[in-house]
Specification:
Blueprint (H helix, E strand, L loop, with lengths): L1 H31 L9 H27 L12 H14 L8 H12 L7 H36 L6 H15 L2 H23 L1 H9 L9
Helix pairs in contact: 1-2, 1-3, 2-5, 2-7, 3-5, 4-5, 5-7
Length: 222
Amino acid sequence: MSDTLRTGLETIDADCESAANIELEKLYEDAGHDQKSRLPSPQAVEAIWLRLITRKEREFIQEIGRVLKPEPAAPHPRPGKELIADIQILLDSMLADSRYVDRFQNFYQEAARNASKPEASFDTQAKRIELIDAAYRTGVRDALRRARQNILAELNLYGSREAPQDADFLSTWRRYSTLSPWRSVGTIILLSLTSYLIAFIIASDTFRALLERLGFSTGTGL
């Protein structure tokens, strides 16, 4: 049971990461064809990683239920505390903050190095990315925390002393109540609106004048 569940979770993790990378590559290619902006939209980039976390949460919970849910005709022995602890360690590593919070900044640092725009035009863009990155980090940490809590609750459900029918009912209810698509959509919309607001503030003449007064060069870019 342990090896089956571990393999399933690792496969899901790899598949989700691969799908997200394909999305990012497509964004980067599309931005390269746009003469007005050589860098992908920050809002689109952060949305990809938020969807990645939500997808992992949903599919991890489904896999836990698939492997650990007792069959009425041939009930499985309940997973022991050791198995629960091992899987929790694996999940914590897959959904660790340190694995996700730097992705936004690293992506744009690499994109800037590969871009052909004049160096001076990246001064303002770098300030914009830095501010949006702060909002991204907060949103991703919240999404990861909720994902870990919901997955752990599902995992502990199958290790409890509840009757199989009670576990089945609670599992169904938890999936319904915690995996609503509106939650992830709302998070993405909220972070996107925050990013647009930051971008608007940075683009304003008042903010540029303040930066120049403080000794920062605003450049000629976005």
